[in-house]
Amino acid sequence: MSSSRFIITVIGIDKVGIVAGITQIMAQYNVNIVDISQTIMDDLFTMIMLAQVKEENFDLAAFQQAMFGKGSELGVEVKVQHEDVFHFMHRI
Amino acid sequence: MMIHPEEILETIKMVSNENLDIRTVTMGINLRGCSHPDIDIFNKNIYNRIMYYAEDLVKTTDDIQNLYGIPIINKRISVTPIAIVAESCDATDFTSIAQTLDRAAEDAGVDFIGGFSALVQKGMTPGDLKLINSIPRALASTNKVCSSVNVATTKAGINMDAVALMGKIIKETAEMTKENSGIGCAKLVVFANAPDDNPFMAGAFHGIGEPDCVINVGVSGPGVVNSAVRALKDPTLGDISECIKKTAFKITRMGEVVGKEVARRLHVQFGVLDLSLAPTPAVGDSVAAILEAMGLESCGTHGTTAALALLNDAVKKGGAMASSSVGGLSGAFIPVSEDEGMIRAVQRGSLSLDKLEAMTSVCSVGLDMIAIPGDTPSSTISAIIADEMAIGMINKKTTAVRVIPAPGTKVGDMIEFGGLLGTAPVMPVHKFSSEKFISRGGRIPAPIQSLTN
Fold this sequence. Notes:
heterodimer; A: alpha+beta; Alpha-Beta Plaits; 37% strand; B: alpha/beta; Anaerobic Ribonucleotide-triphosphate Reductase Large Chain; 2 domains; 14 strands
């Protein structure tokens, strides 16, 4: 794998505490935010983060579970995907 | 951020709203070292061989699915055509081999296993004949085994003895699985020019000339192409072709990253990426819907063949640009029972068997998942196969027939197969007999197109 950077997307109805809740989980798993953008598209709160993981034995499945759990608690949809899939699809 | 947010959201929308998925990761396994005269020892050999390679297949594909966030719907195994590796078995019936394959598929956790197959385009060996005669019992007594028989190639012509035999085998298979509307026939396909590296079922097998073990990936996405075409404002057909090409490019790239990573983690070779628009029963995930988006009132009307030719060609061009490993079938599939738009077209009377046959001359496969009345004579089924094989032979392309003569059904009945296999409306066949033509047997010689050396 070329890097362990992930694209994290959070989409849902805007409300107080989404960023706080999501980033708290990320901090717990030692996941660093490299870049972050946030916008409202079609009345939906949309946050996209580029996150980096430095640990060798990072447990992706556990992190995803925790993020999905927090997402459903907040009523938003959370996705954690390796950045390569986007590079391959949109860049030659 | 190097990737634009809009591009990220485009990818996510393709998966969440438009049913983009990796349809299958198929592991091809060579069984040539397993031959043995004693069928029990042979069965033990193939079981061990399959489990040796496929043990981690499902876990690895699940990990990759989570890593990239792209659903991988099926995990499958294809093996060397059993007629070849079982040729030296003394037994006359090969049903136990199919049952062994079924057990291996079950234990490996895969959805299907393909390769209960024979290649008989020029003639049949004793092993080929034993395998073909075992097909009805094999498919009736297994859940995950898929069978295919190649009866024609451009190089060899059409083996009409095998075509005649397959008409009978299909009828027998339907009869032996009549409790489930003849579902055995949904796992049996008759080919012309069968590809060696096709990851899709029911026709997957691990061809001669392939490595010991290989990963082939099938990517789908009619829903994505359908949405992209429908989003165009008053396009010319050139604009539509361009749009399909770009969409196919993106889908193919995604499939390649997944396939290569699966192969790398399993320490086996990456074979091909097969970008085939394989519809599912989900609304909008339909090849018929794409053709209708181009401006046809209903799939099957005049203009359908032209629209499908444009679609199939644009898919291939986009795919060929995106990956140097494009192979298998790569094009548009038109299985009737699996495509909600095709089913509707049949029901409203716009799509006939004859039109479907014409469509297969410009797309990647053939008459696929079509239910016909249960009392259709086997010679008529053979004649349907012969027509389709002729299209493949002359046009130097793969064609296939997967028809279900569902016992006890008549035209207009609906047959429920469930899951990805969908629902099939029983379609009429011609009433005039082909019996005499089929009973002549022999071979239709290789066409002039075969003389390329």
